[in-house]
Design brief:
single chain; 308 residues; SH3 type barrels; 3-stranded antiparallel sheet; elongated
Amino acid sequence: MATPSASTAATASKASGFSLDALWHSDRLGDVIAGAVLILVGWMLARFFSRVFERSMHHRLTTHQLLVWRRFIYYGIWSLFLIAALREMGFHLSVLLGAAGALSVAVGFASQTSASNLISGLFLIAEGPFAIGDYIRVGQTEGEVLSIDLLSVKLRTPDNLYVRIPNEQLIKAEVTTLTKFAIRRINLPLGIAYKEDLPRVRGILLSVAENNPRCLDEPPAQVIMQNFGDSALNLMFYVWTRRENFLAVRDQLQEDIKTAFDAASIEIPFPQISINASSSNRPLPLQILSKKTAEEHQENTGMGRDFP
């Protein structure tokens, strides 16, 4: 007596037109070999044409666009040969496609998050806010884009960590592309003492930018007075440089500013509080007592006693 599982397998095998029992039949064995050859040839042609496209179009397309088109060509050609191989082996594709459709519905309910990431990935590819090789910041995470896939984006952080960010999170969050443009502005906040001459300080800072060969002349450097702080005059020093020199120039500028301020005796104050007593406010009385007098004072006033 046939078991239910065996009956189901036999029914599916009959519906698909392919039987494992007939695999070693001389007629069907030739079809299976021909299908395997088609799969192998399709894989080789898919690799060949995708690489030829990448080599011929790498000057016209971005790295991200090349990656997307290469995958599309590879899987497209290989899928056509795979379908032809399955038909050659005797599979009825209509039955397989129907089963795949029913399976996709069940998988869709079980993987709603993956579907959301997939749709978000399509939007990212279409919009193209950043490309492979760009340096981006997402929340507190920043790094170089290694790949842009349909489900996630992979980053390499400055400390060489591998970070995977789901596409749905990228669509909802604020994404800053730090290498989108050829030049970047360096913002250096500074504080000087109230006694310093502001025009003189401005001239010293601008000369520091002029003496640095990696600082751009256009747009020019600027020194902006921000506000009057509690302990200092707060300034902002703006300098432009090429994006690949950003970190090196920022570090060098801070060192040069410290050296120039020391040479010109410009004070960089630290937070401090000054207490002044005017003539209208008398200073607090202070009297030094001997130990015996202090004990008598405590007995008379009751101060300094421990209370239960």
